[in-house]
Design brief:
- By secondary structure, the chain is mostly helical.
- The protein has helices at 2-59, 66-81, 87-108, 112-116, 118-153, 157-164, 177-180.
- Helix 1 (2-59) packs across helix 6 (157-164).
- The termini are far apart.
Length: 188
């Protein structure tokens, strides 16, 4: 009887250690996903900070494009207001901002003096660099969400996840068809 008791205690200890290890792995993966989201947030903030400088630089050259400038400013304000939104809502707001920025850069093509302005060129390069960083941060975030979701949905960690209340993460994805299309730029 003494050996059977020790076997049962050993099994309980092993199961407890597996539970703790799995739980800690879930916590680590969830925190990695939160960190990846924070990295997107950093890059989006950087983009939001660049836009007023870009608009101010362009204003002097583009007196007849007031509607475009206002659309950029409004989209930026909406995107900034949505910082606490989830990934889906945030993706929609940022997609709209990307669309109006693309329109602004397409309109800029009509102003050769503006295209040659060093301040504008520097801001445009900074914005392009930031857009690339946002793209990489989104990809990293989605990879992190995939790892996290796989972990909470696969056996045996799904049992621990269900017992401890872990919920699936939301991907940062563009859902509207028009946001998936490449912006049309005309060099007429």
């Amino acid at each position: 009887m003494n050996i059977a008791l020790w076997v049962i205690i050993g099994i309980i200890i092993i199961l407890f250690l597996v539970f703790i290890s799995t739980y800690n792995g879930l916590i680590g993966t969830r925190n990695q996903t939160k960190n990846a989201w924070a990295q997107i947030d950093v890059q989006l903030k950087r983009r939001h900070d660049l836009i007023p400088n870009l608009v101010e630089t362009v204003k002097g050259y583009m007196q007849h494009e007031r509607a475009t400038l206002e659309a950029v400013t409004n989209a930026r304000n909406l995107a900034q207001a949505g910082v606490s939104a989830g990934p889906g809502a945030r993706a929609k707001l940022e997609g709209e901002l990307s669309g109006v920025l693309a329109r602004l850069l397409a309109v800029v093509e009509r102003y050769p003096d503006l295209k040659a302005n060093q301040n504008f060129l520097a801001l445009q390069e900074e914005l392009t660099s930031t857009e690339n960083k946002i793209s990489f941060a989104r990809q990293y975030y989605n990879d992190s969400v995939l790892r996290y979701n796989n972990q909470i949905q696969m056996f045996p960690s799904n049992m621990v996840a269900n017992m401890t209340g872990f919920k699936a993460g939301e991907f940062f994805e563009v859902k509207a068809a028009e946001e998936r299309e490449a912006p049309k730029v005309s060099f007429k």
